Amino acid sequence: MKLSTLSTRGTEAMLALMAVAVAAYAFLAYALQPAGAQVGEAMQEVYRLNPIVIHTHAFAAGLALLLGPWQFSTRLRTRRPQVHRWIGRVYLVAGIVVGGVSGLLLSRLAQGGWVAQLGFACLAVVWLYTGYRGYRAIRRGERAQHRRWMLRNHALTLAAVSLRIYIPLFLANGVPFQEAYPVIAWMCWVPHLVIAQWWLNRGRPVDTHALPTMPR
Ligand code: HEM
After folding, report:
1. pTM summary value
2. Distance (Å) of CA 90 to CA 25, 39, 58, 64
3. Ligand 1, atom nearest to 111 Cα
4. Over the stretch 4-13, which tens digit does the pLDDT of each residue have?
5. How far is the CA of 164 from the centre of ligand 1 (A)?
């Protein structure tokens, strides 16, 4: 096996592991504890007043984070295309649509002022849009385009991981939360989109044979 393949697989495995860890946090923290038990007081107060939207968001977006990594497995797509399709439907409907709309509603209530709120709102809109484009592409039988849009979409799903890495990093470096959060609300997803686009532009031929078509 080539070194570059090994390092790509290592990176994918690491990202999948971090995604599962953050999804597990969302499920456990919001199923077993009062809403916002693990976050600061101001956030906790907002979640206490809006329990439905925060629980819906934590579970739906957590599901997207948990399901997303499996969709990029060539083995799953070629050997079990039906499983890929079903995971994809749940990912898009329960994860992206429900997680994205609830994320958009939450963005109005987010900490960090209007800059943070705008950052989260834009993330929600781009998340929903890339999911829609991925769905539209596969309904039209455009497998290469479907793969490209879903890669962008999943890069955005991983914002939840970066966010939870940046917060303690900023705090550990002495940046107060209210100053750090507006920056993090953008930093957690814009670079992901840039990296995903760079990855797609690298000129590697797209493995369209490994992608199943959706039944019409
Ligand atoms: C990618 C689109 C997403 C958007 C636009 C979004 C938006 C938001 C917003 C605005 C908040 C409230 C922040 C605040 O109160 O200051 C929030 C909180 C939260 N989000 Fe998301 N989110 C997204 C993805 C995810 C994903 C993939 C997960 C998966 C675990 C997730 C899990 C949570 C949780 C658990 C909270 C509550 C805060 C905490 O306990 O850490 N979100 N989200």
Report:
1. 0.91
2. 20, 28, 15, 8
3. 16
4. 676 778 888 8
5. 10
